[in-house]
Design goal:
Elements lengths: L12 H5 L2 H7 L9 E5 L2 E4 L2 E5 L12 H14 L14 H14 L3 E5 L2 H12 L5 E5 L4 H9 L3 E5 L4 H9 L7 E6 L11 H11 L2 E5 L14 H5 L7 E5 L9 E5 L1 H10 L1 H4 L6 H16 L2 H20 L10 E7 L1 H13 L2 E2 L1 E3 L9 E6 L6 H17 L4
Parallel strand pairs: 3-12, 5-6, 5-7, 7-8, 8-9
Antiparallel strand pairs: 1-2, 2-3, 4-10, 9-10, 11-14, 13-14
Helix pairs in contact: 3-12, 4-12, 5-6, 7-8, 13-15
C-alpha cells in the first residue's frame, strides 16, 4: 500500500491543504450532509430530533403522496430496480415514452425528452446544440448545470449581469449575423426567488435571431395556470424555444426533461452525450413522476396552498424586519450578511428544530450570505408560525433585526 513516505503526488496538494470545512466542523457550525433518518413530508428526523423542513424543494408536498408511492412500487415489481442501459440502446421503457408524451402535452410543446437528472438535461441541451462557431448567453445567476453545459459545448460562452437586458442586448449586437445563438435563463432563480422577464427576453432573442431556452426547475408546479411553468405564466409558451426542467422539485422524484419542437428533440436524441452515455431513469422514479404529474393536475388546490403559505412566510419575515430580497416565489431567502453569522444563525435554528439552507460564497458574494427557505403546500400554519417565532427570537439575539 502506498504511504506518505512514497513519491509525492502534486495533484493531491489541494486536498491536503483544504482545511476550511474541517474548521467549521470543529466549531460545530457545519451545515452540510446532514443525514435524515426519517421523513414525514414537512417534518424530518435528523440526529434523533424532529425538525420542521423549511429547506426542501418539495413544493407541492408530493413525495409522500400515496398514489406516487403506489405507482413507484408497482413499476419496481414490473420492470425491476433499474434499466441497466442508456435510453439510446436498451434502456428506453414504455413508461419513459408515456411520460414524454404527457409532459409535452402539459407544457404545450410538440415533443419531450426525458433525462436521468435535471443537471444532465441542461448539459445535454446546451452541449448538444451549441457547437463550434456558436454563442451561448447566460445570466450570471444561472444554475451551475447551465454553466457546465456551456463549458461542455464547443461554442463561445458570454455571461451578462443578472436581469440586465440592456447589457445583454449590447452583447447580442456584437454577434455576427448568421451565427448560431442561444440565450438560456432560469425561469425562477434558485437563490433569489425572482422570476425571469421572459416577454422582454423574447423581444431581444427574436430581434437578434437567438433561440431562448428556459430552465423551469423551480417553476413547474409553481408558476403558470396549471403549474406549467414560467412561459405559461407569461402566456408565451409558443414563443419560447426550449423548456428544460427537473423532476426533483414539484414532481417529487429525480430526473429531467427538455421540451420543444419535434425536430429539435429528435436531434438531441442522437447528439446529446449526457443522454446517450448515461443509464436511463429507473422505472420506479419514472412511474412516480407520472403519478405526481397526474396529482398536480387533478389537485390545483395544492398550488393554492403553496402560495398561501408563501405569502404567510414572506409577510411574516418582512414584518419582523428581515431582508428577503426581491423574491416573488416560494423560494424565500433571508439575508444575514457575514459568513460566520450566517452559519451561527443556521446552527441556532437547527438546534431549535427548524431546518434551513445556508448559502455562502461562491454561490453569493461574501457580504450577501443568506439562509434559503422554501415552502411546501403541506406546511401547516402552525409550522410556519413556529418558524417565524424562532426566526424573530434568534434574529434579535444575533443582531440581524
Amino acid at each position: 500500500m502506498r504511504t506518505e513516505t512514497l513519491q509525492h503526488i502534486a495533484l493531491f496538494d489541494k486536498c491536503r491543504n483544504y482545511t476550511r470545512a474541517r474548521e467549521v466542523q470543529a466549531a460545530g457550525l457545519y451545515p452540510y450532509f446532514k443525514a435524515i433518518s426519517r421523513s414525514e413530508d414537512t417534518v424530518v428526523v435528523i440526529e434523533g430530533k424532529e425538525r420542521i423542513m423549511m429547506g426542501s424543494n418539495n413544493y407541492l408536498g408530493l413525495t409522500h403522496h400515496p398514489e406516487v408511492l403506489a405507482e413507484a412500487r408497482a413499476a419496481l415489481e414490473r420492470y425491476g430496480s433499474g434499466c441497466t442501459g442508456s435510453r439510446f440502446l436498451n434502456g428506453t421503457l414504455d413508461l419513459h415514452e408515456r411520460l414524454e408524451g404527457e409532459l409535452a402535452e402539459f407544457l404545450g410543446k410538440e415533443s419531450c425528452l426525458v433525462f436521468s437528472t435535471g443537471y444532465q438535461a441542461n448539459l445535454g441541451v446546451i452541449s448538444g446544440l451549441v457547437g463550434r462557431g456558436d454563442v451561448v448567453f447566460l445570466d450570471k445567476l444561472d444554475h451551475a448545470s447551465i454553466v457546465d453545459g456551456a463549458k461542455m459545448s464547443h461554442g463561445e460562452t458570454t455571461r451578462f449581469n443578472h436581469g440586465d437586458l440592456a447589457g445583454l442586448e449590447r452583447k447580442l449586437q456584437r454577434v455576427p449575423e448568421g451565427t448560431g445563438t442561444m440565450v438560456i435563463v432560469d425561469g425562477v432563480y434558485s437563490m433569489e426567488g425572482d422570476v425571469a422577464d421572459l416577454p422582454a427576453l423574447l423581444r431581444l432573442t427574436q430581434k437578434y435571431g437567438a433561440a431562448l431556452a428556459v430552465d423551469d426547475a423551480h417553476s413547474i408546479g409553481v408558476l403558470g395556470p396549471k403549474g406549467d411553468g414560467t412561459a405559461a405564466h407569461f402566456g408565451v409558451t409558443d414563443e419560447v424555444d426550449l423548456i428544460v426542467g427537473t423532476f426533483s422539485k414539484s414532481l417529487a422524484s429525480i430526473g429531467g426533461f427538455a421540451a420543444g419542437a419535434e425536430n429539435i428533440i429528435h436531434y438531441l436524441k442522437h447528439h446529446s452525450r449526457p443522454l446517450i452515455f448515461t443509464a436511463a431513469l429507473p422505472p420506479s422514479n419514472t412511474a412516480g413522476v407520472l403519478a405526481a404529474l397526474h396529482v398536480m393536475q387533478r389537485e390545483p388546490e395544492r398550488r393554492d396552498a403553496l402560495w398561501a403559505n408563501t405569502r404567510r412566510l414572506q409577510e411574516g419575515l418582512r414584518t419582523l424586519g428581515f431582508d428577503i430580497g426581491p423574491t416573488d416565489t416560494p423560494i424565500v431567502p433571508v439575508l444575514i450578511g457575514p459568513l460566520e453569522k450566517t452559519f451561527l444563525f443556521w446552527r441556532k435554528l437547527f438546534d431549535a428544530g427548524v431546518f434551513t439552507n445556508p448559502v455562502v460564497p461562491p454561490a453569493v458574494p461574501p457580504s450577501q450570505c443568506r439562509l434559503r427557505t422554501s415552502l411546501m403546500a403541506t406546511h401547516t400554519e402552525e409550522q410556519i408560525d413556529r418558524a417565524l417565532d424562532t426566526f424573530g427570537r434568534l434574529g434579535k439575539e444575533l443582531g440581524v433585526i
